[in-house]
Task: structure prediction
Amino acid sequence: MPIERAEALALDAADPLAGFRDRFTEPEPGLIYLDGNSLGRLPRATRDRLVEVIDREWGGGLVRSWEHWIDLPVRVGDQLGTALLGAEPGQVLVADVTTVNLYKLAAAALDARPDRRVIVTAADEFPTDLYVLDGLAAARGLQVRVVAADPVHGPAPADVRAALDSDVALLCLSHVGYRSGALTDLPGLTAAAHEVGALVLWDLSHAVGAVPIGLDAAGVDLATGCTYKYLNAGPGAPAFLYVNRALHGRARQPIWGWFGQRNQFTMAAGL
Result:
């Protein structure tokens, strides 16, 4: 039922989270911002931190600042994992962009299931995810099996389960639909994929910071997501990726670079 404006203002005044609004910049007084799924508001603390990094760490510290910059992907990843992803330390890295991470994780999953020929996903996935999966399938001669999705409720769990069989290498879905906000059953569908021996990759871009996520508890294999939406990291901010500890000895990084070496500062050839 509709309520009067005075009642709505009273509810706002009594909201225990109302004070958090002051932690963000407000470029237009009175603006009601509903596009956080596309770009989060700028936190005041972030603006101050960026100035510190530019003026003191880069401007003053120069190359010496690499001593604490170089392990930021791990340190921030651990903080993100324990605070918002339900992941114990040592499984989350902050790096690259979501598309690159999705490609790397999907490629690693397919390499780990070389005898299987099918990738399962849903029709309402973010277009980039579908493009990446289509590209991997085309390069490897695989099939992408697309599950229909309701525009409001997303893919039906029963339909996803019906698409899973012993030929599926990877199930790739979004935890929250980018258009509808539909919440997909992460624990249930992860378990369903594991029942047929498939690996699971979750896109958390529209979920992290908005809904509870329990990656370790659900036994999720792989996950990725951006940080510039509900995490308010801003344009150009790095994404994150999660690799369950159980896969650390089996999942191979498909892009071998300097930061992928065990002893990178030896500057040696080979692994």
